[in-house]
Design a protein that fits this description.
Strand content: 35-45%
Radius of gyration: 24 Å
Shape: globular
InterPro entries: F-box-like_dom_sf, F-box_dom, Kelch-typ_b-propeller, KIB1-4_b-propeller, SCF_F-box_domain
Number of strands: 27
Protein name: F-box/kelch-repeat protein At1g64840-like
Structural class: mainly beta
Length: 422
């Protein structure tokens, strides 16, 4: 089965595909039904004739959703035995259009729950590690009923040439889901769309509330009414990021404000950590049970020259019982990716040694062409730099290749030089 990245508008500029792209997805091959006479002389096993109990054993061993896709493509009997992976499903909702707000629009739009993945492309040992981070979905342009087996699984990435990534040549790491209104590019300078947060009001999922970051406003929609309304209580500044977590909405703004919104009353409550900082705030949901806040700030506000390389971070975890932010210095094996189209958390424990991405680090993919991961307690060699804080670690250089529709980046060790005296 062929899949593609989320339905976002591709950039016009074509970028070369990573070095492993030469292993393109093979064309579909015809399933051969050998006769009894020919099968006796062939050494190739007929996988379609496996006993049902063996198929169940194979099912238990397939812990990766893409391996399930491969198994489903063996033959029609395997396709009926292996259910389609739940993690690749994209539930959708039809909503009223909001592009003409505050005027009522006669059109409609679609909200989808998009599965997110991190793909690490296999590269030679001397080459930098290459990654793709983003959502995937079924390629609706292909008629799967007409395809013959086996079907090769690949990911289409608009903006690249060639634009097909073979999953067999990649390591795949699931990152959960993200709700998106399709047809809008949140990373385009011309768009007014800035993201959406979905909050179910009951376990059955029938009733829900949406909070939409659009233009300079926050819009809200209740499933019981199905119309967009402007949120009255908000910040004077533009909203940066919204997230739904454990029955409440959280929103950050350019001014540094951070508010909680009750989904029923839509009243706001200030919820910034203490002591307050003049910082850019980024919310990161780590699974279903943890919400993290990354604050990036200038530790030398009175400096004559602004050095972005000396910016530092404070990381806090939401204490649900005490209802407050608690500063933390250790993320464990996790990596936080801060990006324009939604921040994600990834476990690094399964990544091989030397790949360039390690745990307990923060990677900003929205700050320019080249960057470094932030780590806690980095020695800079400067006496005026505080040690007990998150700052640049120059162990590995992160090169941002592309940001839309998927984030593409390379990681490689930083080359250091020193001057030798004669």
């Amino acid at each position: 089965m062929v899949e593609q990245s989320e339905n976002m508008a591709p950039r016009k500029k074509k970028r070369p595909f990573p070095s492993s792209s030469s292993n393109m997805a093979e064309p579909p091959q015809t399933e051969k039904k050998a006769s009894s006479s020919s099968s006796s002389s062939s050494m190739t096993p007929d996988w379609t004739q496996l006993p049902e109990e063996l198929l169940h054993i194979i099912t238990e061993k397939l812990d990766n959703c893409f391996n399930v896709i491969h198994a489903r493509s063996v033959c029609t009997s395997w396709r009926s035995t292996f259910p389609f992976p739940h993690s690749l499903l994209r539930p959708s909702y039809s909503l009223p259009a909001f592009g003409d707000f505050p005027y009522v629009s006669k059109g409609s739009c679609t909200l989808e729950k998009v599965p997110l993945f991190l793909f690490r492309v296999q590269t030679p040992a001397a080459s930098p590690s290459e990654y793709f981070l983003g959502g995937v979905g079924r390629d609706e342009s292909v008629d799967y009923m007409e395809l013959q087996y086996p079907i090769q699984f690949s990911v289409k990435i608009p903006g690249y040439e060639p634009n097909v990534l073979n999953i067999r040549n990649s390591q795949v790491f699931p990152l959960g889901h993200q709700y998106r209104i399709m047809g809008w590019d949140p990373e385009s300078w011309s768009t007014k769309y800035g993201g959406v947060a979905f909050l179910p009001l009951n376990k059955e999922g029938g009733e829900f509330v949406l909070l939409l970051n659009y233009s300079m406003d926050l819009l809200v929609l209740r499933s019981s009414e199905m119309r967009w309304m402007q949120l009255k209580e908000t910040s004077r500044a533009q909203c940066c990021h919204i997230v739904a977590f454990r029955g409440r909405f959280y929103a950050t703004f350019v001014s540094g404000d951070l508010f909680i919104y009750d989904p029923y009353t839509l009243k706001r409550t200030p919820f910034a950590p203490s002591p307050p900082l003049r910082s850019s705030k980024y919310l990161v949901q780590a699974g279903d049970d943890e919400l993290l806040l990354v604050e990036k700030f200038n530790p030398f506000p009175d400096a004559e020259i602004l050095d972005f390389n000396r910016f530092t971070c404070r990381v806090s975890r939401l204490d649900n019982e005490a209802d407050k932010w608690v500063e933390i210095t250790d993320l464990g094996d996790r990596v936080l990716f801060i990006r324009d189209s939604g921040n994600v958390c990834c476990s690094a424990k399964n990544l091989p040694d030397g790949c360039g991405v390690s745990g307990n680090s923060i990677v900003f993919t929205n700050t320019g062409y080249m960057t470094y991961a932030y780590k806690y307690g980095v020695h800079t060699g400067r006496e005026d730099d505080e040690l007990n804080i998150w700052r640049f670690s120059r162990e590995n250089r992160v090169t941002i290749v592309n940001t839309s529709p998927m984030v593409a980046f390379q990681v490689q060790p930083e080359t250091r030089y020193r001057t030798l005296d004669n």
